[in-house]
Design brief:
316 residues; alpha/beta; TIM Barrel; two-stranded antiparallel sheet; 35% helix; 17% strand; globular
């Protein structure tokens, strides 16, 4: 996820532009790290089987999945990014599973080990987790790295509706997220929330309301917007095969984003507009295009329609 020297004009607050401006034009790339942690919704602490839509392998690149050692993951990830994307600096992204689901001492050892690898080229740390797997000690640990690094804390919002979360076997409520956001109101961490659009039973208006809920929290700096995938190995894949339900096609999802972005606070940085999945695991929707072509299709539609992020957010 690098930043170009001269990114194209966009109608939304784009993450690539943000990185370029923050790091003086250097090409910054995320290196995914699999720390081998579990999830309370898989190991029986809160449930078994995980969220119904989830198969970790579907969104984790092959490289970190195939390497056990953190050093090997990072060194090879950096080498690949330098060769393929001319990357200069790196954000270490602890992505798969729940990356605060361990004692503070264990987490400190994991993060310190990763950050000691090629430290002169590491500018950031990003940690993906669940809101119900954070406490004061873990928050303090993450904040301790902000003196020298950009530290992003990414939490799954997924849906703002508890009925949906229950149906998804999410194992936590929207209030769990709100509680953590309130605790992080004055934190130096960059807070990112991840949403998924297209869950069964949610109407277009219900999904557009996500923007209003996100806007309530000035501490939210980043968002990742995804459309729902059905991936092999997930519980939802079984349900979908038995009783298929409507999913976003590319043009309809583009239309939805063109409605959603004007409702989203203009200062929020959009890290991602859509999700991608391992082609071998993807069941639906298959848009038949590679990531760069999907991005171009959506970006061109946003510009062509004159969409401006935040243009419909009430002020005053």
């Amino acid at each position: 996820m690098g930043s170009s020297a001269h990114p194209p004009r966009k109608g939304y607050n784009n993450y690539g532009v943000y990185l370029r401006e923050r790091f003086a034009g250097r090409r910054v790339f995320k290196v995914i790290v699999d720390a081998g942690l579990s999830c309370p919704n898989r190991d029986g602490s809160k449930g078994y089987g995980g969220c119904t839509y989830c198969n970790v392998d579907s969104f984790t690149p092959q490289l970190p999945r195939s390497l056990a050692a953190i050093r090997a993951q990072i060194e090879q990830g950096m080498a690949r990014a330098r060769t393929n994307y001319a990357a200069e600096k790196f954000i270490l992204y602890f992505q798969p599973n729940t990356n605060t689901y361990a004692p503070v001492a264990t987490l400190r050892a994991l993060f310190d080990e990763a950050l000691a690898i090629c430290p002169q080229d590491v500018v950031g740390l990003a940690v993906g987790t669940r809101p119900d797997c954070l406490d004061a000690g873990k928050i303090a640990l993450l904040e301790s790295y902000t003196n020298n690094l950009m530290v992003d804390l990414e939490m799954g919002m997924e849906s703002i509706y508890d009925a949906t979360l229950l149906q998804l076997n999410r194992g936590c409520t929207h209030q769990d997220l709100v509680t953590v956001l309130d605790q992080l109101e004055n934190s130096p961490l960059n807070l990112c929330v991840h949403t998924v659009f297209g869950f069964p039973g949610e109407t277009r208006d219900m999904m557009l309301a996500y923007a209003r809920e996100i806007n309530r929290f000035p501490q939210i700096k980043f968002v990742k917007l995804h459309h729902l995938h059905i991936v092999a190995g997930s519980i939802l894949a079984v349900h979908y095969k038995r009783a298929p339900f409507q999913l976003f096609e590319l043009d309809d999802y583009t239309d939805f984003l063109c409605e959603f972005l004007p409702l989203l606070r203009p200062d929020i940085v959009v890290q991602r507009l859509f999700g991608i999945s391992d082609w071998k695991l993807l069941i639906a929707p298959n848009w038949g295009l590679k990531k760069v072509r999907i991005q171009t299709h959506i970006d061109q539609a946003i510009l062509r329609r004159g969409v401006i992020q935040g243009s419909r957010v009430a002020t005053g």
